[in-house]
Amino acid sequence: MAKLFNRQSRPKEPKKQVRLKLRSIDVWSAVKVGFLISIASSIGIVVGAWLIWSVLSNSGVFSAIGSLLSSVLGEENAFNLETEFSSENVMSAATTLALLNVVLGTALAAIWAVIFNVVSKLIGGVSLTFTNN
Questions:
Q1: Within a domain: residue 6?
Q2: What is the pTM of this model?
Q3: Residue range of the domain that includes 51
Q4: Does residue 108 lie within any of the structural domains?
């Protein structure tokens, strides 16, 4: 029982904390990070659109909805969903959205960095506390 209360190791040293203030963000580094994040999300958009289209197309959802619409609207007003949602149409729309995402995401990263720098000059920055493990 005495072994349970005997310490073999020394007590841990207290953690050191450092308080820093973030006063500005380099706009060029924000543009680079925003560009890389936009590229990654654009790849996700294109791959996700292809996966969703392939699952819906192979399961026959487009033909089922098309037959339902033709029975409700009548044969003369019906349109073919399989041609409207073809792989070329879906992938071109996804690619257009991905390119728009890259352009706007990169521009917004730069704008947010400039806005943060202006606000930081007014209020003095953001206080951060770091510790060592």
A1: no
A2: 0.73
A3: 29-131
A4: yes
